[in-house]
Amino acid sequence: MTEFNSHRFCTAPLLEWSDRHCRYLWRLLSKRARLYTEMVTTGAILHGDRERHLQFDIAEQPLALQLGGSDPRELAECARIAEGWGYSEINLNCGCPSDRVQSGRFGACLMAEPGAVATGLAAMRAAVSIPVTVKHRIGIDDMEDYVGLARFVEAQAVVGINTFIVHARKAWLRGLSPKENREIPPLNYDLVYQLKKDYPDLQVIINGGIQSLEACQHHLQYVDGVMLGRAAYQNPTLLARVDMQLFGEKAGPDATQVVEQILPYIERELGRGQRLNYITRHMLGLFQGLPGAKRFRRHLSENAHRKGAGTEIVSEALALVAHAI
Questions:
Q1: Active site includes 96?
Q2: Same domain for 282 and 243?
Q3: Is 235 annotated as a binding residue?
Q4: Among positive and negative, which fits the CA dihedral 174, 179, 181, 184?
Q5: Residues 182 and 264 in one domain
Q6: Is Flavoprotein a UniProt keyword of this protein (predicted)?
Q7: Is 49 part of any domain?
Q8: Which of 10, 22, 78, 96 is catalytic?
Protein backbone atom coordinates (compact mmCIF):
# COMPACT_ATOMS: atom_id res chain seq x y z
CA MET A 1 0.00 0.00 0.00
CA THR A 2 1.23 3.48 -0.84
CA GLU A 3 2.18 5.58 2.16
CA PHE A 4 -0.46 8.08 3.26
CA ASN A 5 2.08 10.87 3.05
CA SER A 6 3.07 10.13 -0.55
CA HIS A 7 2.80 12.38 -3.59
CA ARG A 8 1.11 9.73 -5.74
CA PHE A 9 -1.84 12.08 -6.27
CA CYS A 10 -1.75 15.82 -5.54
CA THR A 11 -3.99 18.79 -6.16
CA ALA A 12 -2.25 21.80 -7.63
CA PRO A 13 -1.73 25.20 -6.02
CA LEU A 14 -4.27 27.38 -7.87
CA LEU A 15 -4.01 31.11 -7.28
CA GLU A 16 -7.34 32.52 -6.05
CA TRP A 17 -8.93 29.05 -6.25
CA SER A 18 -7.36 26.53 -3.88
CA ASP A 19 -8.10 28.45 -0.70
CA ARG A 20 -8.96 26.73 2.59
CA HIS A 21 -12.66 26.35 1.74
CA CYS A 22 -11.82 24.69 -1.57
CA ARG A 23 -9.35 22.37 0.12
CA TYR A 24 -11.86 21.35 2.80
CA LEU A 25 -14.27 20.38 0.02
CA TRP A 26 -11.55 18.42 -1.77
CA ARG A 27 -10.63 16.58 1.42
CA LEU A 28 -14.22 15.39 1.81
CA LEU A 29 -13.91 13.80 -1.63
CA SER A 30 -10.50 12.18 -1.17
CA LYS A 31 -8.70 11.17 2.01
CA ARG A 32 -5.49 10.32 0.15
CA ALA A 33 -4.89 13.31 -2.11
CA ARG A 34 -2.05 15.59 -1.06
CA LEU A 35 -3.34 19.16 -1.04
CA TYR A 36 -1.45 22.38 -1.81
CA THR A 37 -2.27 25.94 -0.86
CA GLU A 38 -2.35 28.83 -3.25
CA MET A 39 1.07 30.40 -3.66
CA VAL A 40 1.75 32.73 -0.72
CA THR A 41 4.62 35.20 -1.01
CA THR A 42 7.22 35.52 1.69
CA GLY A 43 6.29 39.19 2.01
CA ALA A 44 2.65 38.36 2.69
CA ILE A 45 3.66 36.06 5.55
CA LEU A 46 6.31 38.31 7.04
CA HIS A 47 4.48 41.63 6.69
CA GLY A 48 0.82 40.82 5.96
CA ASP A 49 -2.17 39.17 7.61
CA ARG A 50 -0.47 35.93 8.62
CA GLU A 51 -3.61 34.26 9.91
CA ARG A 52 -5.52 34.92 6.69
CA HIS A 53 -2.72 33.46 4.59
CA LEU A 54 -1.85 30.45 6.75
CA GLN A 55 -5.08 29.38 8.45
CA PHE A 56 -6.35 25.90 7.59
CA ASP A 57 -8.51 23.14 9.03
CA ILE A 58 -6.70 20.11 10.44
CA ALA A 59 -8.91 17.96 8.21
CA GLU A 60 -6.99 19.26 5.18
CA GLN A 61 -3.82 17.35 6.12
CA PRO A 62 -1.58 16.28 4.52
CA LEU A 63 -1.26 19.89 3.36
CA ALA A 64 1.66 21.68 1.74
CA LEU A 65 2.25 25.42 1.75
CA GLN A 66 3.54 26.81 -1.51
CA LEU A 67 5.87 29.77 -1.07
CA GLY A 68 6.82 32.45 -3.58
CA GLY A 69 10.11 34.18 -2.98
CA SER A 70 13.86 34.06 -3.55
CA ASP A 71 15.62 35.62 -0.55
CA PRO A 72 17.14 32.72 1.44
CA ARG A 73 16.65 34.36 4.85
CA GLU A 74 13.02 35.21 4.14
CA LEU A 75 12.34 31.74 2.75
CA ALA A 76 13.90 30.11 5.82
CA GLU A 77 11.90 32.30 8.21
CA CYS A 78 8.64 31.59 6.37
CA ALA A 79 9.41 27.89 6.36
CA ARG A 80 9.89 28.00 10.15
CA ILE A 81 6.63 29.87 10.58
CA ALA A 82 4.78 27.40 8.35
CA GLU A 83 6.14 24.42 10.25
CA GLY A 84 4.93 26.06 13.44
CA TRP A 85 1.47 26.35 11.95
CA GLY A 86 1.46 22.62 11.30
CA TYR A 87 2.01 22.29 7.56
CA SER A 88 3.25 18.92 6.27
CA GLU A 89 5.51 20.28 3.52
CA ILE A 90 6.92 23.54 2.13
CA ASN A 91 6.99 23.88 -1.65
CA LEU A 92 8.88 26.58 -3.55
CA ASN A 93 7.21 28.03 -6.64
CA CYS A 94 9.54 28.10 -9.64
CA GLY A 95 6.80 27.74 -12.23
CA CYS A 96 4.45 30.75 -12.24
CA PRO A 97 5.03 32.85 -15.40
CA SER A 98 3.13 36.07 -14.58
CA ASP A 99 4.77 39.50 -14.99
CA ARG A 100 3.92 40.39 -11.39
CA VAL A 101 5.75 37.32 -10.15
CA GLN A 102 8.77 38.03 -12.33
CA SER A 103 9.04 41.59 -11.02
CA GLY A 104 9.20 40.13 -7.52
CA ARG A 105 11.93 37.70 -8.62
CA PHE A 106 10.10 34.49 -7.94
CA GLY A 107 8.18 31.94 -9.98
CA ALA A 108 9.35 30.55 -13.32
CA CYS A 109 12.03 33.21 -13.86
CA LEU A 110 14.05 31.52 -11.10
CA MET A 111 14.74 28.58 -13.42
CA ALA A 112 17.36 30.82 -15.01
CA GLU A 113 19.17 30.89 -11.64
CA PRO A 114 19.46 27.26 -10.46
CA GLY A 115 22.22 28.17 -8.01
CA ALA A 116 20.12 30.87 -6.34
CA VAL A 117 17.19 28.47 -6.07
CA ALA A 118 19.44 25.87 -4.49
CA THR A 119 20.67 28.41 -1.93
CA GLY A 120 17.08 29.25 -0.98
CA LEU A 121 16.00 25.63 -0.76
CA ALA A 122 19.05 24.74 1.33
CA ALA A 123 18.19 27.53 3.76
CA MET A 124 14.64 26.25 4.02
CA ARG A 125 15.78 22.68 4.63
CA ALA A 126 18.13 23.83 7.37
CA ALA A 127 15.29 25.71 9.06
CA VAL A 128 12.69 22.93 9.28
CA SER A 129 12.27 19.20 9.81
CA ILE A 130 9.36 18.78 7.36
CA PRO A 131 9.95 18.05 3.65
CA VAL A 132 10.94 20.90 1.34
CA THR A 133 10.05 20.45 -2.33
CA VAL A 134 10.07 22.49 -5.53
CA LYS A 135 7.55 22.96 -8.35
CA HIS A 136 8.92 24.12 -11.68
CA ARG A 137 8.54 24.02 -15.46
CA ILE A 138 10.45 21.89 -17.94
CA GLY A 139 12.15 25.12 -18.97
CA ILE A 140 11.78 28.79 -19.79
CA ASP A 141 12.17 30.78 -23.01
CA ASP A 142 15.25 29.69 -24.95
CA MET A 143 16.68 27.45 -22.24
CA GLU A 144 17.99 24.21 -23.72
CA ASP A 145 15.24 21.65 -23.45
CA TYR A 146 16.36 18.59 -21.51
CA VAL A 147 19.89 19.82 -20.78
CA GLY A 148 18.57 22.91 -19.01
CA LEU A 149 15.95 20.93 -17.10
CA ALA A 150 18.52 18.40 -15.90
CA ARG A 151 20.94 21.15 -14.88
CA PHE A 152 18.24 22.81 -12.79
CA VAL A 153 17.20 19.57 -11.09
CA GLU A 154 20.78 18.49 -10.37
CA ALA A 155 21.51 21.81 -8.65
CA GLN A 156 18.60 21.28 -6.26
CA ALA A 157 19.36 17.60 -5.69
CA VAL A 158 22.88 18.53 -4.54
CA VAL A 159 21.42 20.44 -1.57
CA GLY A 160 19.15 17.55 -0.61
CA ILE A 161 15.92 18.21 -2.51
CA ASN A 162 14.47 14.89 -3.65
CA THR A 163 10.89 15.74 -4.69
CA PHE A 164 10.30 17.64 -7.92
CA ILE A 165 6.86 18.61 -9.21
CA VAL A 166 7.32 19.28 -12.89
CA HIS A 167 4.84 21.19 -15.04
CA ALA A 168 5.42 19.64 -18.46
CA ARG A 169 5.24 22.90 -20.42
CA LYS A 170 7.87 25.56 -20.96
CA ALA A 171 7.09 28.99 -19.55
CA TRP A 172 7.53 31.78 -22.08
CA LEU A 173 8.28 34.84 -19.99
CA ARG A 174 8.49 37.21 -22.94
CA GLY A 175 5.59 37.79 -25.29
CA LEU A 176 2.94 35.52 -23.75
CA SER A 177 0.38 36.22 -21.05
CA PRO A 178 -0.08 33.74 -18.17
CA LYS A 179 -3.35 32.66 -19.82
CA GLU A 180 -1.57 31.98 -23.13
CA ASN A 181 1.13 30.12 -21.20
CA ARG A 182 -1.52 27.57 -20.20
CA GLU A 183 -1.79 26.43 -23.82
CA ILE A 184 1.47 27.50 -25.51
CA PRO A 185 3.95 25.93 -26.12
CA PRO A 186 2.75 22.29 -26.27
CA LEU A 187 3.06 19.96 -23.30
CA ASN A 188 6.04 17.61 -23.38
CA TYR A 189 5.43 14.74 -20.99
CA ASP A 190 8.33 12.74 -22.44
CA LEU A 191 10.86 15.15 -20.93
CA VAL A 192 9.42 14.50 -17.49
CA TYR A 193 9.47 10.73 -18.06
CA GLN A 194 13.11 11.03 -19.13
CA LEU A 195 13.93 12.94 -15.96
CA LYS A 196 12.61 10.10 -13.81
CA LYS A 197 14.44 7.54 -15.92
CA ASP A 198 17.76 9.36 -15.58
CA TYR A 199 17.34 10.20 -11.89
CA PRO A 200 15.57 7.15 -10.43
CA ASP A 201 16.40 8.12 -6.83
CA LEU A 202 14.44 11.37 -7.12
CA GLN A 203 10.69 11.56 -6.69
CA VAL A 204 9.17 13.08 -9.84
CA ILE A 205 5.56 14.27 -9.94
CA ILE A 206 4.07 15.28 -13.28
CA ASN A 207 1.72 18.23 -13.76
CA GLY A 208 0.05 20.02 -16.64
CA GLY A 209 -3.02 19.33 -18.77
CA ILE A 210 -4.01 16.07 -17.04
CA GLN A 211 -7.77 15.70 -17.38
CA SER A 212 -8.73 12.27 -16.02
CA LEU A 213 -7.77 9.52 -13.61
CA GLU A 214 -7.21 7.25 -16.59
CA ALA A 215 -4.55 9.69 -17.77
CA CYS A 216 -3.13 9.67 -14.23
CA GLN A 217 -2.81 5.89 -14.34
CA HIS A 218 -0.94 6.15 -17.64
CA HIS A 219 1.52 8.73 -16.26
CA LEU A 220 2.11 6.65 -13.14
CA GLN A 221 3.75 4.02 -15.31
CA TYR A 222 6.63 6.47 -15.82
CA VAL A 223 6.71 8.81 -12.80
CA ASP A 224 6.06 8.68 -9.05
CA GLY A 225 3.05 10.94 -8.85
CA VAL A 226 0.56 13.16 -10.63
CA MET A 227 -0.80 16.61 -9.86
CA LEU A 228 -4.15 17.89 -11.12
CA GLY A 229 -5.35 21.47 -10.97
CA ARG A 230 -8.08 22.80 -13.23
CA ALA A 231 -9.61 19.40 -13.92
CA ALA A 232 -10.07 18.81 -10.19
CA TYR A 233 -11.51 22.27 -9.65
CA GLN A 234 -13.94 22.23 -12.55
CA ASN A 235 -15.13 18.68 -11.86
CA PRO A 236 -14.40 18.08 -8.16
CA THR A 237 -16.24 14.74 -8.00
CA LEU A 238 -13.35 13.33 -10.03
CA LEU A 239 -11.54 13.34 -6.67
CA ALA A 240 -14.09 10.93 -5.22
CA ARG A 241 -12.57 8.16 -7.36
CA VAL A 242 -8.94 8.90 -6.49
CA ASP A 243 -8.76 6.75 -3.36
CA MET A 244 -10.24 3.73 -5.15
CA GLN A 245 -8.55 3.98 -8.55
CA LEU A 246 -5.10 5.15 -7.51
CA PHE A 247 -4.76 3.77 -3.97
CA GLY A 248 -6.96 0.66 -4.07
CA GLU A 249 -9.14 1.88 -1.22
CA LYS A 250 -12.77 2.80 -0.66
CA ALA A 251 -14.23 5.35 -3.06
CA GLY A 252 -15.12 8.77 -1.72
CA PRO A 253 -18.68 10.05 -1.23
CA ASP A 254 -20.92 11.11 -4.09
CA ALA A 255 -21.77 14.76 -4.70
CA THR A 256 -25.00 14.66 -2.67
CA GLN A 257 -23.20 13.19 0.33
CA VAL A 258 -20.45 15.81 0.05
CA VAL A 259 -22.98 18.64 0.13
CA GLU A 260 -24.58 17.11 3.22
CA GLN A 261 -21.18 16.60 4.88
CA ILE A 262 -19.99 20.14 4.27
CA LEU A 263 -23.05 21.81 5.80
CA PRO A 264 -21.71 21.75 9.40
CA TYR A 265 -18.45 23.30 8.15
CA ILE A 266 -20.39 26.04 6.35
CA GLU A 267 -22.46 26.69 9.46
CA ARG A 268 -19.31 27.03 11.53
CA GLU A 269 -17.64 29.37 9.05
CA LEU A 270 -20.72 31.56 8.77
CA GLY A 271 -20.68 31.83 12.55
CA ARG A 272 -17.14 33.18 12.27
CA GLY A 273 -18.27 35.91 9.89
CA GLN A 274 -17.45 34.23 6.58
CA ARG A 275 -19.76 34.90 3.61
CA LEU A 276 -21.58 31.94 2.09
CA ASN A 277 -20.51 32.61 -1.49
CA TYR A 278 -16.83 32.47 -0.50
CA ILE A 279 -17.41 28.78 0.21
CA THR A 280 -20.06 27.78 -2.33
CA ARG A 281 -18.12 29.20 -5.29
CA HIS A 282 -15.94 26.09 -5.06
CA MET A 283 -18.98 23.77 -5.13
CA LEU A 284 -20.43 24.85 -8.48
CA GLY A 285 -18.94 21.92 -10.42
CA LEU A 286 -20.06 19.20 -8.00
CA PHE A 287 -22.89 17.82 -10.15
CA GLN A 288 -21.25 18.35 -13.52
CA GLY A 289 -22.88 16.18 -16.17
CA LEU A 290 -25.84 15.19 -13.98
CA PRO A 291 -29.49 16.26 -14.35
CA GLY A 292 -30.15 19.41 -12.38
CA ALA A 293 -26.51 20.54 -12.34
CA LYS A 294 -27.32 23.81 -14.08
CA ARG A 295 -30.11 24.59 -11.60
CA PHE A 296 -27.79 23.76 -8.69
CA ARG A 297 -25.14 26.16 -10.01
CA ARG A 298 -27.66 28.89 -10.78
CA HIS A 299 -29.30 28.76 -7.37
CA LEU A 300 -25.98 29.08 -5.58
CA SER A 301 -24.71 31.77 -7.96
CA GLU A 302 -27.84 33.89 -7.65
CA ASN A 303 -28.41 33.55 -3.91
CA ALA A 304 -25.23 32.70 -1.98
CA HIS A 305 -23.89 36.25 -2.22
CA ARG A 306 -26.98 37.78 -0.60
CA LYS A 307 -26.57 39.37 2.81
CA GLY A 308 -27.46 36.90 5.54
CA ALA A 309 -27.47 33.90 3.19
CA GLY A 310 -27.17 30.68 5.17
CA THR A 311 -27.04 26.92 4.71
CA GLU A 312 -30.69 26.88 3.61
CA ILE A 313 -29.48 28.20 0.24
CA VAL A 314 -27.26 25.14 -0.16
CA SER A 315 -30.04 22.78 0.90
CA GLU A 316 -32.41 24.38 -1.59
CA ALA A 317 -29.84 24.00 -4.36
CA LEU A 318 -29.34 20.34 -3.45
CA ALA A 319 -33.10 19.75 -3.59
CA LEU A 320 -33.15 21.01 -7.17
CA VAL A 321 -30.68 18.30 -8.16
CA ALA A 322 -32.46 15.59 -6.18
CA HIS A 323 -35.76 16.42 -7.85
CA ALA A 324 -34.12 16.31 -11.28
CA ILE A 325 -32.76 12.82 -10.60
A1: yes
A2: no
A3: no
A4: negative
A5: no
A6: yes
A7: yes
A8: 96
